[in-house]
Amino acid sequence: MREVWDRVPAWVNKAPISEFRLAINVSPRQFFDIGFRNQLKELADSDPDRTCHVELEITEEVIIGNVEQAKAILLTVDAMNFAISIDDFRTGYSSISYLYKLPVSKIKIDRSFIVGVGKTDRAEHVVRSIVDLGHNLGLTIIAEGVETEMQAHIPQRSRCDEFQFDLPAA
After folding, report:
1. DSSP string over 76-108
2. Residue 44: pLDDT above 90?
3. Which helix (H) or strand (E) holds 145?
4. N or C: which end of the chain has fewer CB within 10 A?
5. Whole-angstrom distance, CA of residue 109 vs CA of residue 91
6. Is the pLDDT confidence value at 101 over 70?
7. What CA–CA distance (Å, rounded) separates 51 from 5?
8. pLDDT at position 40, please?
9. How far apart are CA 91 and CA 70, in angstroms?
10. Triad 29, 9, 161: Cα angle to 5°
């Protein structure tokens, strides 16, 4: 984490876009580890302006089974001004309930929905519904796993705010 934190200013200066944000996947073990949260606090205290360029991604599995503890941790991390996103968002009841119970600012639409875009109308309708729900809650929506122009076109038309492109391996 320290190495990434130290590199953020250089990446921001080289970024081809004005709004650079680095998303870091946080494992369940890290998420519940007080040492990891202490490290985040130390980093945020060392350069509070840098937190706007770092987003912490958690999966729904982190939250399932311990919503109250997860909420307390997320409130602590949110107070440090790190953006928090739910990775691999699905549309189950529990997923939707997290959106208003927890301090998250972004959701990433699971790639399983994105890969169906352009193949079935249902996939496009699901993506649009997730986007509408997220926007109505004031969240930023990311289409995850975009691989084709068609896949980028539908979420864009559906008003996704950001895209995570999966490029083929070199």
Report:
1. HHHHTT-EEEEEEE--SHHHHHHHHHS---EEE
2. yes
3. strand 140-146
4. C
5. 9
6. yes
7. 9
8. 95
9. 19
10. 70
